[in-house]
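Following up on my earlier thread - several people asked me to post the actual chain instead of describing it. Fair enough. Here it is, all 228 residues.
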Amino acid sequence: MEIGQAFTFVNKDDDWIKKLGLGALFVLIPFLIILIVGYQIAIIRNVMKGEERPLPDWDEFGQLFIDGLIIIVSILVYALPIILISLCGSAIGFLTADSGGGWTTGGIVGNSLFGCIALLYGLALAFLTPALFIQYARTGEFGTLFQVGEVVAIARGNLVDILLAIIVIFVANFLLFIIGVISVITICGPLIVFTAGTAWVYYTTAHLYGQIGRKMNDNNLETAYDAA
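Reply from S.P.:
Thanks for posting it. Predicted structure:
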């Protein structure tokens, strides 16, 4: 994966300040994060197509909103088991509580067990999320996000690249936090770092996912040539 390119492709665009600025503005309004997620899909598609300047224009807001909403809804659906598992753990703790309302050994063990299951599922979901982005960028169809076999196959077939992307994104967010803390010495620094930096990380994340999708396309093309 071209990690350096994922971080630097933004400022290679002629209108990168405007495009990053709009993303930073939308970061300030939680509901408009939907637009940024839709914008990520546009970036992924451009990277998959091998566009020299993959940072798209901020236009077709309706389509960006729809794409972002579809991705967020799909992630929430996949996250439902975590909610159910957590509720089961809480229910066990409540039902096994002693007369004073304290947790019994059985309640603690049961809640811990369900907590571990939720944690493992959460880790699995972390790997499935990039696959959901890539699947939708490839197909543009909501229903394909719930073709679980295909989504899992994307995650499993690109496990190393997805793990690398997750690590890079984690490091990027950590560095953003450190820079934000340092910028406290200025008046507007933290706000600028948070909004513009967060938008930059969103764009970088999309570029990394796009690279994985493009690699999949290249592999499929090579397979087709071999078969011919």
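Residues 40 and 206 are 5 Å apart (CA to CA). That should answer part of your original question.
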